[in-house]
Backbone:
């Protein structure tokens, strides 16, 4: 029929930020996080948690899914802030207040940090704060602010378990009772099941076959975001050409044009990008010199200096993504852009 969708039934289901009502293959993680949050149902103190694992492993999705459920059941307010989008201490605290619906008497730009923190600490009801992508934080002091705010349950999310190692001793000690929840990479079969769920709700029946879904799963290397992105891309391509089914040739063409899941350069924080660009320009640099240059360039942009610990965390992040590599040890360590 003309004008009617032949391939896509519900595009929203294929979008990255869609929160599925059914989550597959994450029973252990769901239970662990639920156990942390469940005391809220009885008006008791919940437990903080730390979710970590590779990109596309379901961390954000599970945190949002469970807190959404909890919000409906208890009326507990939830705030979600992604540190990649809001890396500074002020913007994170401000973002949390906005999500919680706490209004500030002073205008955003003119409000001092103390006042924002004060407003957050003044509320009495229990809240849950999801701090996503904490390995992109540019001022780790905000974690200290949050662990020292009463009635606030924290869910921290990062790619590497080491993301919290660099925190100062006081914050680490506060977080020592947080539940550590690992998200291992999905297997091809698990990705396939996730894709089947999206196909069922997102596509017209019969538009894409099982073997085609398997083909996408085998390319995704355990990254559910990449897999769902591919499903969306191929469905949109076929829809755009007014086809009734996705032909194998179109699937192969879409897959061959896809960028591999990593490195995801576009998702570096401004500071990470500065370090990466400096290394790319100079090819390679010793760690001390790199740090000095980094500080200079922060100053030139009117940005606050960054402690060595944070600088090393940025380097680890870039290395984990294979964007840079290192050779040598200690002060003789040299970094190179790959
Ligand atoms: N077990 C699952 N069941 C259904 N959908 C899932 C599952 N795991 C992940 N997804 C979907 O896959 C996509 C990627 O997952 P998510 O955004 O949670 O990854 P992530 O672990 O937060 O990755 P990153 O570290 O890159 O932020 C999302 O669209 C999410 O809804
Ligand atoms: Mg995420």
Residues:
């Amino acid at each position: 029929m003309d004008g009617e969708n032949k391939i896509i039934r519900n595009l929203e289901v294929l979008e990255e930020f869609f929160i599925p009502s059914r989550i597959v293959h994450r029973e252990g993680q769901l239970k662990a996080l639920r156990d942390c949050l469940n005391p809220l149902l009885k008006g008791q103190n919940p437990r903080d948690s730390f979710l970590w694992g590779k990109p596309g492993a379901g961390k954000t999705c599970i945190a949002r899914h469970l807190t959404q459920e909890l919000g409906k059941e208890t009326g507990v307010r939830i705030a979600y802030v992604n540190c990649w989008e809001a890396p500074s201490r002020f913007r994170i605290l401000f973002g949390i207040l906005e999500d919680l619906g706490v209004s500030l008497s002073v205008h955003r730009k003119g409000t001092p940090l103390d006042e924002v923190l004060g407003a957050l600490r003044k509320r009495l009801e229990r809240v849950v704060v999801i701090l996503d992508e904490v390995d992109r934080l540019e001022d780790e002091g905000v974690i200290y602010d949050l662990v020292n705010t009463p009635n606030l349950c924290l869910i921290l999310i990062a790619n590497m378990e080491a993301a919290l190692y660099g925190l100062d001793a006081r914050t680490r000690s506060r977080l020592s009772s947080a539940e550590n929840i690992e998200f291992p990479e999905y297997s091809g079969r698990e990705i396939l099941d996730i894709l089947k769920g999206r196909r069922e709700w997102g596509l017209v029946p019969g538009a894409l076959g099982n073997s085609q879904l398997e083909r996408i799963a085998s390319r995704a290397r355990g990254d559910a975001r990449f897999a769902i992105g591919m499903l969306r891309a191929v469905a949109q391509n076929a829809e755009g050409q007014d086809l009734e089914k996705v032909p194998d040739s179109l699937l192969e063409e879409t897959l061959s044009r896809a960028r591999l899941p990593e490195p995801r350069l576009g998702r570096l924080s401004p500071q990470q990008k500065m370090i990466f660009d400096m290394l790319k320009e100079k090819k390679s640099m010793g760690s001390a010199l790199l740090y000095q240059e980094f500080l200079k360039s922060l100053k030139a942009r009117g940005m606050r200096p960054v402690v060595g610990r944070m600088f090393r965390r940025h380097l680890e992040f870039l290395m984990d993504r294979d964007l840079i590599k290192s050779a040598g040890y200690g002060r003789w360590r040299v970094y190179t852009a790959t």
Observations:
- Residues 14 and 228 are 6 Å apart (CA to CA).
- The pocket of magnesium ion (ligand 2) is lined by residues 59-60, 132 (CB under 6 Å).
- The radius of gyration is 22 Å.
- Residues 11-16+186-257 form a domain with the Helicase, Ruva Protein; domain 3 fold (CATH 1.10.8.60).
